[in-house]
Design goal:
Arc Repressor Mutant, subunit A, DNA-binding, 2 domains, Nucleoside Triphosphate Pyrophosphohydrolase, 24% strand, alpha+beta, seven-stranded mixed sheet, 24% helix, homodimer
Amino acid sequence: MTTPPRPDGYDPRAFEPFAVTVDLAVLTVRAGRLHVLLVQRGQEPYAGAWALPGGFVLPRESAGTAARRELAEETGLPEATVAGLHLEQLRTYTEPDRDPRMRVVSVAYTALVPDLPEPRGGGDAAEARWLPYDEVPALAFDHDVILADARTRVGAKLEYTCLATAFCPPEFTLGELREVYETVWGVPLDRPNFRRKVLTTPGFVEPVEGPPRRTGGRGKPAALYRAGEATALHPPLLRPEGRSA
Amino acid sequence: MTTPPRPDGYDPRAFEPFAVTVDLAVLTVRAGRLHVLLVQRGQEPYAGAWALPGGFVLPRESAGTAARRELAEETGLPEATVAGLHLEQLRTYTEPDRDPRMRVVSVAYTALVPDLPEPRGGGDAAEARWLPYDEVPALAFDHDVILADARTRVGAKLEYTCLATAFCPPEFTLGELREVYETVWGVPLDRPNFRRKVLTTPGFVEPVEGPPRRTGGRGKPAALYRAGEATALHPPLLRPEGRSA
DNA sequence: GCCTTTTATAGTCAAGATGACTCTTAAGGA
DNA sequence: TCCTTAAGAGTCATCTTGACTATAAAAGGC
């Protein structure tokens, strides 16, 4: 790192200050559709518009800490639950005019969560709600771009990581896991082939002991699995035809 | 995005300001070894220590623009060359105490470049130099972490993207391309298998017209190739045994 | 020139992984 | 009881890999 234009007698206030925020693209699969957690802004700019949850990074916290704090505030989830969630830095958005008030750079995070209860619009948000991904209206700031980037990233990561289990509850069936892939990728997968791939990948999932089985309504009851130790998928589970970018 | 603690009568100066910098992990393959572009700091903090090139983001530029500007300044490359380089946002580092002077968040970028001429230590750097990756001393700030993250990311991206060509000059032989993989991954690859994989992946490389062949010293002259249109590798070119993380 | 070394390029072959299917089992609902 | 739905077992051909062998074309030493 080099030094600022006039580094001698360094004075932080000599520079036009930047504000740093975090924005969260919190995704889940609910009823076979990809959903996003959105909040309705209570004040200007973009008052009344929907936006990704997020907020300012406090002076003594890291962006990751801020992200978890904001997520807990906006969803009303207990800290313990939020602490265990899969949170991943997506990208940082730095266009000079992305916020009309001042120079704000935003560190965006992606969170993959199981189907959670409806959020209570806490914090500064007028309202918080899960919206189906393809019914999301135009969002405040550059949040459309962030959300699109998050979706692309998640789709790609499903191919070569075990991340899909993050969308599932602690115990899940292979059918539920397959639904995650089908929903995020938007393509149907062959059931037996999917099953074979998941079960032969060491550490992807591990069976839950005992005879417990879950009947998901109709059909033969399915065995339950837990997420395994592995994080990467080798070889990967590639999407059918779509050559991903 | 929610609003700051006391958003009414918003005043940017009311918050302890953050500074925003960019840091660049510029990697190249030279003589079969991975090299990194480092600069020696001219002043405190960490005066005399080696660090990644980078610098402050100016008030009216994006981080990406700042990264290219700093890269041009520190390496002395013409703007046109820098404009064509593969620059990719790596991650943003936000630990509160990563800079002893003040709160600085840094957006890190990774650049993959062909074997470039020795840099002239321009800008604020006392000296700029290519250092072999495994001879890099302890770096200033958290740059060791950034550099390690960059290496991990690049290693992984070689598997499922066509990024390796970014390490090569405009025209290159398959031997040179293979050397990139072997150097970054640190494992030898089977020559015929590598060749088959690269040539059967549509759009990875395209042959250079005519009879031009390059003799790289000894051995049979090799045909020349150019980078193709493709960006992704489907299916990927996985590292031999190392199950990547 | 001749021989050795080095690297490119052409094949071969078996094992592994994948895609497309079929068939059976075990529930729920009409 | 019969039909529908989804789980789970298994088959088979094709595609991709990893491991190897063989040949071609240069440079260097003698």
